[in-house]
Write the structure tokens for this entry.
Amino acid sequence: MDSSATRCVVIIIYGLCFLSILIESKGSSKTLNFKWDVEYMHWSPDCNEGVVMGINGQFPGPTIRARAGDTVVVELTNKLHTEGVVIHWHGIRQIGTPWADGTAAISQCAINPGETFVYKFLVDKAGTYFYHGHYGMQRSAGLYGSLIVDVAQNVKEPFHYDGEFNLLLSDWWHKNAHEQELDLSSSPMRWIGEPQSLLLNGRGQYNCSLASQFSSPPLDQCKLTGTEQCAPQIMTVEPNKIYRLRIASTTALASLNLAIGNHKMVVVEADGNYVQPFSVYDMDIYSGESYSILFKADQNPAQNYWISVGVRGRKPNTPQALTILHYSPTSPTLLPTSRPPVTPLWNDYDHSKAFTNRIKASRGSPKPPTTYNRRIMLLNTQNKMNGFTKWAINNISLSLPVTPYLGSIKYNLNNAFANSPPPETFSPVYDVMRPPVNPNTTQGDGVYMLKFNSTIDVILQNANALADNVSEIHPWHLHGHDFWVLGYGEQKFTDKDVVNFNLKNPPLRNSAVIFPYGWTALRFVADNPGAWAFHCHIEPHLHMGMGVVFAEGIYRVKNIPKEALTCGLTGKMFTDKKH
Amino acid sequence: MDSSATRCVVIIIYGLCFLSILIESKGSSKTLNFKWDVEYMHWSPDCNEGVVMGINGQFPGPTIRARAGDTVVVELTNKLHTEGVVIHWHGIRQIGTPWADGTAAISQCAINPGETFVYKFLVDKAGTYFYHGHYGMQRSAGLYGSLIVDVAQNVKEPFHYDGEFNLLLSDWWHKNAHEQELDLSSSPMRWIGEPQSLLLNGRGQYNCSLASQFSSPPLDQCKLTGTEQCAPQIMTVEPNKIYRLRIASTTALASLNLAIGNHKMVVVEADGNYVQPFSVYDMDIYSGESYSILFKADQNPAQNYWISVGVRGRKPNTPQALTILHYSPTSPTLLPTSRPPVTPLWNDYDHSKAFTNRIKASRGSPKPPTTYNRRIMLLNTQNKMNGFTKWAINNISLSLPVTPYLGSIKYNLNNAFANSPPPETFSPVYDVMRPPVNPNTTQGDGVYMLKFNSTIDVILQNANALADNVSEIHPWHLHGHDFWVLGYGEQKFTDKDVVNFNLKNPPLRNSAVIFPYGWTALRFVADNPGAWAFHCHIEPHLHMGMGVVFAEGIYRVKNIPKEALTCGLTGKMFTDKKH
């Protein structure tokens, strides 16, 4: 893509009004009904047969395509033999429907085998979303799919494109999710290691490569007819047209980087919010994030090009995922002659930070309140507990209760979770640059009770893990809200850092990373009654306790479906009062 | 053992009063309290590491040892991450406590992760019992243990012995139970195959043998120090003493045969009921059965001897399980010089039938009513259903409902299960010697409603499976009752067979096999209010629908713990009536 073409794309984008996203097209909004069965299936996501958790015989699950203002109704039936299930609609704020957030032990009881739960919620805001299991490690088991919300019928996107593609990114292990849970919960902890494969829309190739002549370490050329479950979905473009590529990462672990060989990408959306467009040749995507990029098919149309996705942020041991950008009418099976784009070095954090820092809210986006009512400092540490390895926040490792918070708070049930709130901050003398002096932690299930409509600042503070000179990236995801990302910084956050907060055009997102040894400052308004998870989106980390729970205005929540609460102390309450 | 020694043992047994088992020693009866956590564990049951479902860190689960008249209280906490769990107390009739039978969807809702359910029941009758999971295929996952009920304090066993041993038999697959469930539920069905190992008290050896010089196919000698999880438990005896060996089989699939090299065994108990003692050199044990045998340590005390367990009834592909009968003070690690007892040919059904037909009730055992009120004929067939493979009874393949029958029947809930009762019999022209003319079946969840206190005859009729010239052994197990085994016969049961029923000394049991192409006649009194599973104890067969449900006198059941019913329509009923 030459620079004039890039400029052309950017000009188109700037030329449109971003306020359009706020308009609700009530006249044409619809209710979309889906009946889904969740079950295990034999599947070969990476050409190696395993077992996936699928929906209606599909892996990944069906893509939901709605318009802003529509109501989505998913009747979810659990067809597993002995396991509960829930589905979280990642990025949907569930305004007025906190019981439909799909987080086991927080917004609802897990749906038991044979039972059906109806998720009914408004998709109020156009954007690129996805859904996934939020119970145990069912995301790692393959329970996920895409949720795309188009602008309402009479609304135009603030940029032009001729066609679009969707890429849901995930990572895949050959060890099943139950064994992963056990490994992580064992003393000593057994780390699950790097994924065997990266998947693009549920498709990857293990032990072979689509680009074997370039693969290092060497791999055989994949012999695929195109009909296999693991065959790549080829993206076909027509020369000189502009395409939107929607990208979301539901990885259990991997931080990723995506590039399209020779093609420049213009980032226009992050987590369902428009951003000030900017051009890149590669982009990082952390678990829990979604993006839209535009690209123009402006390269030699006699060739095809690689789309590559590789691991970043952890020393990779997984080959790149590849698929082909195919220029019509060239043959779609013509392999690109060039080397697939090389993923930036896994630990080139400057590259990562440069990308992240370029993400700014688009013009017309809602601005953050200029002050906060409460600041919560959250120290992220890796810890030990009686020989087990845990992740903890302010030295409390989250252990979810049996009774969903939404119910226990609504009905003022004592003993459903810890009475004392978790700590507001951590010791001012904690040295984030070194392993913890005392690595011991405890488990807890306390809740940060937020005053309704108050403005909350959260400072996520990273630290050194248990081993010397190790500090990992953690992508944090907030349920029920978007937050403004006010800033990122190095080492320990201090009050002096506040002056550098971006209050002018901070991006609105539902996910944000903390970089190694760094901090990230977020602001949100606690204006959505419900109980909301806020956690590291790396599933093994959440499993090991890396999360907290916020709750606000639950007294305002009416009509919680009883089916959401037929377990634990709420189940007992319903039961004891009758018969 | 020479014949005079055998006679001596037998004389001791005959000389005692069998009525003693009915005496309840109320003065000394106790309540035994247990707190159990169920969780997955890394374990090496056969020297190959896998994942087992264990209890309190043990595999198999802890042995419960009680006295007749005691009350057992097990507070069972589900520490699994996403799966429900129940435990069935196999052989305990649960008189007055049908909600404690531990059958998911029949007697209770599965216990959800994090929740605790209290099983409280009377062990009214001395005998050799066991317990196991009864949800999905959690028995195959390793959820089982022994339950031994000694005679009450002032009561003597009707035979003498100097010491005793306990052997819980099971089979083990390297493929996890979830994948087994999926394989069996797939279209086309994928058969799970023969187990990788047989386990004695949870211990087996894969890919090596304790008796390698005799193994065929050849296997390396196991190199074990004795401290491994897979090391055999050696049984140490003193010369010339008499021992009781309690044996129970909780296999998922395998029919077994047990022998003690050179030692004669006297069978004295079957399924918690004394039998007329008889001597054998090897004995069959089907899944769901338990036995006690007596043997005298009357062989050359300078040697040790093999105890061997091998597969019968299916073409075996699993090595014998072995352990050592060790004569003190000989070294326990001295390997027997003789070849382990050879398991009778897998398809030598005459041998099997000869053993089974020798089992008669001991003198003084309760006699069956001489007539029946209702006869239910149950045809066992293998079938097809939309490409899936099923097992069906009278052409209905059991598909358990979401709401436990005990609750839905107690509260007269409509739509909890099929209104129409399942068929009382099958077509008189059905040819049991050939594959089904029409192999199609349907699923159902109807119940055989039995008149309280009526006498029920059940004729289990075997048939040819889907393939030509195949008819398998099925060990049927009844919950909530013992039944009298009135007789076994070949081919199709006819009214003329009734004259050969044994009404004089039919054994009281809770499990009985049907032999290939044969029938088995059972009689029981429907005198225990509750909902009771009656099913093939081969777990994959039950998973594929091979069972029925009996219910009787549920209107008499009071005080069902609400925790047993907080799911499905009973859960909804409790919930809807309040709030």
Q: What stands out?
A: DSSP finds six helices and 32 strands in chain B. Confidence is low (pLDDT under 50) at residues 1-25 of chain B. The radius of gyration of chain B is 23 Å. Helices of chain B lie at 3-14, 177-184, 349-357, 405-410, 539-543, 568-576.
